[in-house]
Amino acid sequence: MASSSSSLSLSQALLTKPTSHPSPSPSPTHLSLPTRLRQNPSFTSHRTTALSHRRRHPTITPIRASVSVETLEKPTADASLVEKSVNTIRFLAIDAVEKANSGHPGLPMGCAPMGHVLYDEVMRYNPKNPYWFNRDRFVLSAGHGCMLQYALLHLAGFDSVKEEDLKQFRQWESRTPGHPENFETPGIEVTTGPLGQGIANAVGLALAEKHLAARFNKPDNEIVDHYTYTILGDGCQMEGVANEACSLAGHWGLGKLIAFYDDNHISIDGNTEIAFTESVDSRFEGLGWHVIWVKNGNTGYDDIRAAIKEAKAVKDKPTLIKVTTTIGYGSPNKSNSYSVHGSALGAKEVDATRKNLGWPYEPFHVPEDVKKHWSRHIPEGAKLEAEWNAKFAEYEKKYKEEAAELKSLINCELPAGWEKALPTYTPESPADATRNLSQQNLNALAKVLPGLLGGSADLASSNMTLLKMFGDFQKDTPAERNIRFGVREHGMGAICNGIALHSPGLIPYCATFFVFTDYMRGAIRLSALSQAGVIYVMTHDSIGLGEDGPTHQPIEHLASFRAMPNILMLRPADGNETAGAYKVAVLNRKRPSILALSRQKLPNLPGTSIEGVEKGGYTISDNSTGNKPDVILIGTGSELEIAAKAADDLRKEGKEVRVVSFVSWELFDEQSESYKESVLPAAVSARVSIEAGTTFGWEKIVGSKGKAIGIDRFGASAPAGKIYKEFGITKEAVIAAAKELI
Amino acid sequence: MASSSSSLSLSQALLTKPTSHPSPSPSPTHLSLPTRLRQNPSFTSHRTTALSHRRRHPTITPIRASVSVETLEKPTADASLVEKSVNTIRFLAIDAVEKANSGHPGLPMGCAPMGHVLYDEVMRYNPKNPYWFNRDRFVLSAGHGCMLQYALLHLAGFDSVKEEDLKQFRQWESRTPGHPENFETPGIEVTTGPLGQGIANAVGLALAEKHLAARFNKPDNEIVDHYTYTILGDGCQMEGVANEACSLAGHWGLGKLIAFYDDNHISIDGNTEIAFTESVDSRFEGLGWHVIWVKNGNTGYDDIRAAIKEAKAVKDKPTLIKVTTTIGYGSPNKSNSYSVHGSALGAKEVDATRKNLGWPYEPFHVPEDVKKHWSRHIPEGAKLEAEWNAKFAEYEKKYKEEAAELKSLINCELPAGWEKALPTYTPESPADATRNLSQQNLNALAKVLPGLLGGSADLASSNMTLLKMFGDFQKDTPAERNIRFGVREHGMGAICNGIALHSPGLIPYCATFFVFTDYMRGAIRLSALSQAGVIYVMTHDSIGLGEDGPTHQPIEHLASFRAMPNILMLRPADGNETAGAYKVAVLNRKRPSILALSRQKLPNLPGTSIEGVEKGGYTISDNSTGNKPDVILIGTGSELEIAAKAADDLRKEGKEVRVVSFVSWELFDEQSESYKESVLPAAVSARVSIEAGTTFGWEKIVGSKGKAIGIDRFGASAPAGKIYKEFGITKEAVIAAAKELI
């Protein structure tokens, strides 16, 4: 995490799992193959007919096979080999799901054509370095169809998905889990599965590219230059988070975002007609996207190619390519039905499908000509990366400073001494709301952290998140770093996950009122699971926000995040603790942090420190000796002040009182037993906690004999001081509880 | 809650707070008033100009003042009196916010014209019985603008909002809290504030009307017949939950849903141009709505009236009336800016606004002619209800059975003996997944509960939620009770809140995988806060779902809901407990219930019972005497079986072991101290809990000396049995822990 060498190869070190598989056989046997790979014509047209009944396409001109198609990237294979490759993808998916007797064969069978075109003809990547910075990004938003991507990574030569991995699909510790996991499988950019997240992540990836390109590209050297592709299904389209993110993508004009909508009309409950009859085309046009319709996604390869070409030509808008496909294409009895969505086909139907598609091979077999055809991606990928490295060397010569900065973003090198920028405070510093102190920290860090960027869900002036030295990231000012998310919390979180996972050195933050984490919890959980170090700046963190009332007052939220794995829940009490929370958040690049911050003013307390925050819980004041106080008062955030005041009064009465700030339970848990004992000695059972939130979970800290003061009901609309008093979150309550226990 | 008398007047009893205000003075003093109430012309046109630059309106024909406008409902006031009434609304809002020095004056000032037209000219309601069944429903989705609605309720004569209530705006225990709360203020249909929820609630209200109308209306007697109106702002429009719900509203063809979009271009961060440049018109047309644009919402009363007329004429689609307004209309220096959104105007600007709008009155004053004009709503409302009661009497004579059923829905009378329909099980009953047992319960209840309706977010066949005796609620089959929500969890929850709050006897349920409560937590929290007894059927409740992996496996979710106020988190272990969970859920009409249900098969255990579930925690087996077992093993849901098996083994070794099912923490908390002591005696500190989820919070139950077995990391993709073993959620782990403690 500290400043490191100038080598770019650190990105290689990001390969989180060693690849221990043996190399492929050096002289593969050649097989003679039938070339009669025409599919059943019944799959090619009936969807289009059905379609015309039910959806309006007011202005979309469909791409037709008769349109003259220029070759897109490289003419790579004749038509029969393409179809053989596509069927290879289909059968790898069929076979893996069949072996696991679990999984989703329908999407890979329907999307194999677009998958093939993307990974074999269009995308630029290096199979031997999945973390090459300038690679095209691909997100399977419809993550349940992950066998599509595993098959593609396998064919393309990624070490993470060997044949034995495919055979371990959905098994314990395999690299082919049931949904794509970025932390398990190099080549997977983001974890998907929960619908709608992936397309929103893709918006974040495309934002990151546009931002970095604007910051670093030079007229003579466009060092940042890649596309972001995604496949999303009907399910993703129905999710609100997708609409939020796509509205922003249109607003920002993310022209290098190309989304394939797998329009197969089938979801788990059957035909999408039962719940989804909107015109997606009209909606996306309204959102400011370019929309293309490929009517025959099952065999219309040239149409898919032409659509991608058209999409790339439209530089000021993201493109949605609606590709009408048949789910489970090739299965004579199950295609175009929900039965092929989420279950193995069954031996009988697998046989029927093999027969139908003319596929004579054993399970998991990749025909030699297909293998040979795809094998070029290893040298070509190496060449792409080498060319880019040469380009970077040129760039470095000419633009030394920018090159160093870009390198630090690629390799996640924080500038040496960055933490010295954090402000510090004394008890004499003026009282202030931690949301304001947060803004001081953000603005101090913006000067030293080139990867810091972010914004608020339309509450910038309440969350205090504007970076004053930068303007707004907008369509025409993409080098700026203040992101305006609008009132779209869920999309905001998912977009930030995409930014964080684009480049290890990007440090996205996002903000709203703490209570509205309820709107974005799906995205926050994925930050935690997929190790995206997003910083969540959550202000108005208690009843202390006052008059806005119970809909706006978090009660259960601290507990609900303390219960979530791999996330840091931080509730700083004053200036030094806010700085400490930022130090922790910046250093934790592989887990997200949530900062709960006050709306109301808080004094700077004697004894608080950045170092203390790093330990999660620590003593801020103590008049006892021998690690045996009469009582320990424990507070967090805005209530630490109350604990400190109660201690003052109790000490005046001769009591030996320790005050502990418990800013992060997770960090405290990670300390040594001896440190924990030094703060919360087992022998002292007289413990009182105070926090303006639920007492749920506090038994762990105060013990069976202690007392937790908190709020186990919804809040109320009134001035903050009044609510504190009525709810008994007071110094007097702490003193009374302490006296009962001493 | 039990079967009751046939009186309709029970709905009156739903008035949750007594109205203790004195009656208005019988002879109000007449004041002589100026009639020069022309507003500043600068407010009438500039928005339209700005608009034409930034939004596309491809097909929407704007309503223009020149269009010949037929009188809508009743010609009620001359133009100057209308404007005076509108300014009264504006100044009540201004004055209340000013007095509180907190609140949102901008929306009420801009939306006063549409608010006036709705409450004074269009809506049918009875101020003296806010719970009259056939009233038109109104939802202020932009809940921060609640002074608009409080002012309207005040003028209309609702007892809940007297002048002294307006003066107590945002104060402790007032009936005019900072956001509208249905449980505080009769006349408020649903709690709003968190953006996007209200429009989704409105979809639920309109669904309920369409459903009940289809079930109960007769060609000669349309006993169910009302509209649902809502006002939403730019913020609501950006939220994904709104898009989800509006997509469904279009799909269902909810023609009696009329939504006013307050298109004022200002949100908290400034001009919406910074984050919101989509064409809302195109999007809503894509969603299947009828869209009308009122270009001048500030003074275009006839345009507003004409738009409502047009909306009512379109019977097969919901209508969005985009009303372009000026936020803070009338304030010479702050209108059309974010500064008027969420803060008091300040004394100086209040004066300037009074001058600008020609308003000579003291704060909170309602001019006598305005008062007199509005006073007709009390007799008219009484008449409307009396007419409807007469209509109902006719209906009752002719359609006795239907009338009784409708009455039971209006008054929330559960049929006598309904709970006898709940299935019961013995240990000999076949092992089954609790999701399947849930389906047996739902289908048994559907036969006896006329108010039960619901569905799944595209997982009906996984959640097992289909009611076999009914078809799908669809546009043309609205009397059916299976609702197909599509993959829209958040919209689903919010729509169910609307259904629940439409009529006390409606019992909506909705379903998805438990982990996806993360997507709908915003709506679930509002169920809890606003006392909507929605039943959340949440299957696949642990790592027991197996191969789908960590994105699908809930870990922290049980804890996160146990921490939430006013909600029941139930995790039944087998058939009897599932029946018990349904009994509890149905009886709790003023708090929501979440049922966490297994994907995997579970045996029916000896000792489980419906009565046990009602107590939250209870002993299912015990070989000890004198309330002093050697150890207490505590399990929930699928892990209760493991606890029972561990007990069997321990007993064979001579130990005295109690097994406790802890199906609902909240219900257990509500039991008497002596009951709690009988289950978990304080003297027995040897306690082991087992639950396939986070251990967070379990210290409260097992105590400092006990041991909680659980999972404090994310899950994994593998067959369920394998994961249980690898994660140590096993009988062996329970036995080992118990032996350590004994």
Chain oligomer state:
homodimer
Low-confidence stretches of chain A: 1-59, 64-73
- Strand line-up of the largest beta sheet of chain A: 11-12-10-13-14-16-15
Question: Percentage of helical residues of chain A?
Answer: 40-55%
Outline the biggest β-sheet of chain A: 7 strands, parallel
Amino-to-carboxy terminus distance of chain A? 46 Å
Please tell me what the overall shape of chain A is.
Answer: elongated
Write a structural description:
The structure is a homodimer of 742-residue chains. Chain A has 742 residues and is an alpha/beta fold. Chain A has 28 helices and 22 strands. In chain A, β13 (507-513), α19 and β14 (535-539) form a beta-alpha-beta unit. The radius of gyration of chain A is 28 Å and the shape is elongated. Chains A, B: Keywords: Magnesium, Metal-binding, Thiamine pyrophosphate, Transferase. Chains A, B: This is transketolase.
Quick recap:
The structure is a homodimer of 742-residue chains. The first copy, chain A, has 742 residues and is an alpha/beta fold. Helix content of chain A is 40%, strand content 12%.
